[in-house]
Amino acid sequence: MKKMTMKDVDLKGKRVFCRVDFNVPMSEGKVTDDTRIRAAIPTIEYLVDNGAKVILASHLGRPKGTVNEDMRLAAAGAKLSELLHKEVKSLDESIGQKVEQEIASMNDGDIVLLENVRFHPGEEKNDEQLAKAFAALADVFVNDAFGAAHRAHASTAGIAKHLTAVSGLLLEKELDVLGKALSEPERPFTAIIGGAKVKDKIGVIDHLLDKVDNLLIGGGLSYTFTKAQGHEIGTSLLEEDKIELAQSFIKKAEEKGVKLYLPLDVVVAQKFSNDGETKVVNIDEIPADWMGLDIGPKTVELYSDVILNSKLIIWNGPMGVFEMSSFENGTKSVAQAMAKTEAYTVIGGGDSAAAVEQFNVADQMDHISTGGGASLEFMEGKELPGVTALTDK
Ligand SMILES: Nc1ncnc2c1ncn2[C@@H]1O[C@H](COP(=O)(O)OP(=O)(O)OP(=O)(O)O)[C@@H](O)[C@H]1O
Ligand SMILES: O=C(O)[C@H](O)COP(=O)(O)O
């Protein structure tokens, strides 16, 4: 079902409750990565240019329903103001009389940022009263928080029952890119899945096996597959209870004609540290008291080759412990191959987005999702409550 967008509503003079995802990394009261704030700007500018009174709302961190001084949104408001060259008034509440008074005094085109919606316990419970209190502040609801679209919360889903609810430009773009990739992919279509645990990627691997031509596996989760192939993995990450599942994925790939690639060689170390001795071994030669912490050079060559010969690539999860320089090469090389390929490249948020930033190739990717969990759930084929709740066209 098609959902209404900002372009379907008259915004002039309207109070617009615009949910954004300003859940940004912070250190010492400052925003350390403003990617998500920058990503919301087209929608905010559209609202301003169309004469709306812009009431921004977001969560930050997981304050568990109480006020947490370190999780106030004022620093994000200041950053937004700096980026827009325009006043953004940060309030210290998200509902109540004071907020209502502030909104009543707004002129068309003004912007306020409400306080962290998760300071209220009702937010994450999708409490009806809180949803109504948010809705009472506005005439229209715009959801632009793709990163939080997998959460059925009062400010993402509940509020949509009480107002005309439309998508913002970022939400629309994310759904468009990821949706098109999954429904009408250019081929060869390759998915690269890494990260720590099989358990977190079961849904996405299963769903992608129905869609892709190639599946490249790396990172901590690959060792459960290696074990499933019958090799010893030393002290590498293992999820004993997922070995059978890994076997079933290998079988499913065979049945579907998907080329499933697993590491041929790995970088091993005796401890989880950047300083110890490391060596490269073939996948069937991991010594008993060593652990695999990155893919090796033969694997890098093979994976890069697949990447260079694809037309569409989705990447979620690093190939190794890329935060440590001794084990960054696999993730770095994959990032560099992604930068070089002519394929349409999509980064599924979270650590992979951090990796392409770290290796200075972010601007060479076609789309970097602002959602970690949200893009993963979308790629699992799940419905996103923040999208489902929007008004049908
Ligand atoms: N071989 C390995 N052994 C141990 N840890 C690993 C290994 N390879 C990668 N990791 C770690 O996995 C972590 C990332 O995995 P995780 O599943 O948490 O995130 P992700 O897959 O990037 O998900 P998201 O994109 O949602 O953040 C990184 O911190 C990385 O150091
Ligand atoms: O950072 C994210 O993935 C989103 O902002 C959602 O945050 P959450 O996992 O705390 O709901």
Automatic annotation (TrEMBL):
Q: Which GO terms describe its molecular function?
A: phosphoglycerate kinase activity
Which positions in this protein are listed as binding ATP? 201, 292, 323, 349-352
UniProt keyword Iron-sulfur, yes or no: no
Locations listed in the record: Cytoplasm
Q: Which residues bind substrate?
A: 21-23, 36, 59-62, 118, 151
**What does the record give as the reaction this protein catalyses?**
(2R)-3-phosphoglycerate + ATP = (2R)-3-phospho-glyceroyl phosphate + ADP
Superkingdom of this protein's organism? Bacteria
Main localization of the protein described in the UniProt heading: cytoplasm
| UniProt keyword terms in alphabetical order | ATP-binding, Cytoplasm, Glycolysis, Kinase, Nucleotide-binding, Transferase
**Which pathway does UniProt place it in?**
Carbohydrate degradation; glycolysis; pyruvate from D-glyceraldehyde 3-phosphate: step 2/5
Q: List the InterPro entries.
A: Phosphoglycerate_kinase, Phosphoglycerate_kinase_CS, Phosphoglycerate_kinase_N, Phosphoglycerate_kinase_sf
- EC code(s) of this entry: 2.7.2.3
PROSITE patterns in the record, alphabetically? PGLYCERATE_KINASE
TM annotation in the entry: none
Q: How does it assemble?
A: Monomer.
In which family does this protein belong, per the annotation?
Belongs to the phosphoglycerate kinase family.
Can you name this protein?
Phosphoglycerate kinase
Originating organism: Planococcus shenhongbingii
In the UniProt record, the gene name given for this protein reads: pgk
